[in-house]
Amino acid sequence: MGNSSEHELLREGEISSFGTELPQAEIEALVADRFGRKPYCLVEDWLIFHVDEPPESLARVRAIGLQTMFLYSHCVTYDSQGRFPPGGWVRSTLCKSFDGVCLFETRNTVYALVGKGREMTASLKTIFGLC
Protein backbone atom coordinates (compact mmCIF):
# COMPACT_ATOMS: atom_id res chain seq x y z
CA MET A 1 0.00 0.00 0.00
CA GLY A 2 1.12 3.53 -0.63
CA ASN A 3 0.57 5.54 2.51
CA SER A 4 -0.99 4.90 5.89
CA SER A 5 -4.17 6.88 5.14
CA GLU A 6 -4.98 4.47 2.29
CA HIS A 7 -4.39 1.54 4.62
CA GLU A 8 -6.62 3.10 7.27
CA LEU A 9 -9.36 3.71 4.70
CA LEU A 10 -9.45 0.00 3.94
CA ARG A 11 -10.14 -0.72 7.61
CA GLU A 12 -13.10 1.66 7.69
CA GLY A 13 -16.66 0.98 6.67
CA GLU A 14 -19.15 -1.51 7.93
CA ILE A 15 -18.37 -5.19 8.19
CA SER A 16 -20.22 -6.77 5.28
CA SER A 17 -22.65 -9.65 5.48
CA PHE A 18 -21.42 -10.78 2.03
CA GLY A 19 -18.65 -13.25 1.30
CA THR A 20 -18.30 -17.02 1.18
CA GLU A 21 -16.39 -19.71 3.00
CA LEU A 22 -16.84 -22.25 0.18
CA PRO A 23 -13.70 -24.07 -0.97
CA GLN A 24 -12.09 -22.89 -4.22
CA ALA A 25 -13.36 -25.88 -6.26
CA GLU A 26 -16.98 -25.13 -5.28
CA ILE A 27 -16.57 -21.42 -6.06
CA GLU A 28 -15.13 -22.30 -9.48
CA ALA A 29 -18.09 -24.62 -10.18
CA LEU A 30 -20.53 -21.87 -9.17
CA VAL A 31 -18.81 -19.32 -11.44
CA ALA A 32 -18.74 -21.76 -14.37
CA ASP A 33 -22.43 -22.58 -13.89
CA ARG A 34 -23.52 -18.93 -13.79
CA PHE A 35 -20.99 -17.21 -16.05
CA GLY A 36 -19.60 -19.90 -18.37
CA ARG A 37 -15.97 -19.32 -19.29
CA LYS A 38 -15.80 -15.70 -18.12
CA PRO A 39 -12.48 -14.89 -16.35
CA TYR A 40 -12.71 -14.83 -12.56
CA CYS A 41 -10.69 -13.85 -9.50
CA LEU A 42 -10.88 -15.05 -5.92
CA VAL A 43 -10.26 -12.15 -3.54
CA GLU A 44 -9.90 -11.82 0.22
CA ASP A 45 -9.67 -8.75 2.44
CA TRP A 46 -12.12 -6.98 0.14
CA LEU A 47 -14.07 -3.74 0.26
CA ILE A 48 -17.20 -2.91 -1.72
CA PHE A 49 -17.49 0.79 -2.46
CA HIS A 50 -20.95 2.27 -2.97
CA VAL A 51 -20.39 5.38 -5.08
CA ASP A 52 -21.29 8.70 -3.46
CA GLU A 53 -21.84 11.10 -6.35
CA PRO A 54 -24.66 13.43 -7.45
CA PRO A 55 -27.92 11.60 -8.34
CA GLU A 56 -27.64 12.55 -12.03
CA SER A 57 -24.20 10.88 -12.25
CA LEU A 58 -25.53 7.74 -10.59
CA ALA A 59 -28.55 7.74 -12.93
CA ARG A 60 -26.24 7.83 -15.99
CA VAL A 61 -24.39 4.75 -14.72
CA ARG A 62 -27.64 2.86 -14.13
CA ALA A 63 -28.93 3.92 -17.57
CA ILE A 64 -26.10 1.94 -19.22
CA GLY A 65 -26.98 -1.14 -17.19
CA LEU A 66 -24.31 -0.91 -14.50
CA GLN A 67 -24.52 -0.65 -10.72
CA THR A 68 -22.83 2.12 -8.78
CA MET A 69 -20.43 -0.16 -6.94
CA PHE A 70 -16.72 -0.92 -7.21
CA LEU A 71 -14.70 -3.68 -5.58
CA TYR A 72 -11.24 -3.26 -4.10
CA SER A 73 -9.10 -6.04 -2.66
CA HIS A 74 -5.53 -6.00 -1.57
CA CYS A 75 -5.31 -9.79 -1.57
CA VAL A 76 -5.99 -11.60 -4.84
CA THR A 77 -5.72 -15.30 -4.03
CA TYR A 78 -6.32 -16.64 -7.55
CA ASP A 79 -6.88 -15.18 -11.03
CA SER A 80 -8.06 -17.62 -13.71
CA GLN A 81 -6.14 -15.66 -16.37
CA GLY A 82 -3.01 -14.82 -14.38
CA ARG A 83 -3.54 -11.05 -14.75
CA PHE A 84 -3.13 -10.35 -11.03
CA PRO A 85 -0.40 -12.07 -9.00
CA PRO A 86 -1.38 -13.94 -5.82
CA GLY A 87 -1.21 -11.49 -2.93
CA GLY A 88 -1.54 -8.52 -5.32
CA TRP A 89 -4.25 -5.89 -5.22
CA VAL A 90 -7.10 -5.20 -7.63
CA ARG A 91 -9.69 -2.47 -8.11
CA SER A 92 -12.59 -3.41 -10.34
CA THR A 93 -14.47 -1.40 -12.90
CA LEU A 94 -18.15 -0.69 -12.25
CA CYS A 95 -20.34 -3.58 -11.19
CA LYS A 96 -22.49 -5.24 -13.84
CA SER A 97 -24.23 -7.66 -11.48
CA PHE A 98 -23.99 -8.77 -7.87
CA ASP A 99 -25.67 -11.91 -6.57
CA GLY A 100 -26.10 -10.50 -3.07
CA VAL A 101 -23.83 -13.19 -1.65
CA CYS A 102 -20.33 -13.41 -3.08
CA LEU A 103 -20.22 -13.03 -6.88
CA PHE A 104 -19.42 -9.50 -8.07
CA GLU A 105 -19.44 -9.26 -11.87
CA THR A 106 -17.90 -6.53 -14.03
CA ARG A 107 -17.90 -6.43 -17.84
CA ASN A 108 -14.70 -8.49 -18.01
CA THR A 109 -14.38 -10.44 -14.75
CA VAL A 110 -16.29 -12.20 -11.99
CA TYR A 111 -14.84 -11.57 -8.52
CA ALA A 112 -15.61 -14.14 -5.82
CA LEU A 113 -15.62 -12.49 -2.39
CA VAL A 114 -13.96 -14.96 -0.05
CA GLY A 115 -14.11 -14.59 3.72
CA LYS A 116 -15.11 -11.40 5.48
CA GLY A 117 -14.94 -7.96 3.95
CA ARG A 118 -16.27 -4.45 4.36
CA GLU A 119 -18.58 -2.00 2.64
CA MET A 120 -18.50 1.76 2.57
CA THR A 121 -19.74 4.75 0.63
CA ALA A 122 -17.06 6.88 -1.02
CA SER A 123 -16.52 9.43 -3.76
CA LEU A 124 -14.96 8.47 -7.08
CA LYS A 125 -11.93 10.57 -6.12
CA THR A 126 -11.42 8.43 -3.01
CA ILE A 127 -12.00 5.16 -4.88
CA PHE A 128 -9.62 6.00 -7.71
CA GLY A 129 -7.04 7.37 -5.26
CA LEU A 130 -6.41 3.83 -4.02
CA CYS A 131 -3.52 1.92 -5.51
From TrEMBL:
Matching entries from InterPro entries are given as: DUF6957 (IPR054232)
Q: Which Pfam families match?
A: DUF6957
Q: Outline the extent of the DUF6957 domain.
A: 19-128
Q: Which domain of life is it from?
A: Bacteria
Q: Which named protein is this?
A: DUF6957 domain-containing protein
Q: Which species does this protein come from?
A: Pseudomonas amygdali pv. mori
Recite the lineage of the species. Bacteria, Pseudomonadati, Pseudomonadota, Gammaproteobacteria, Pseudomonadales
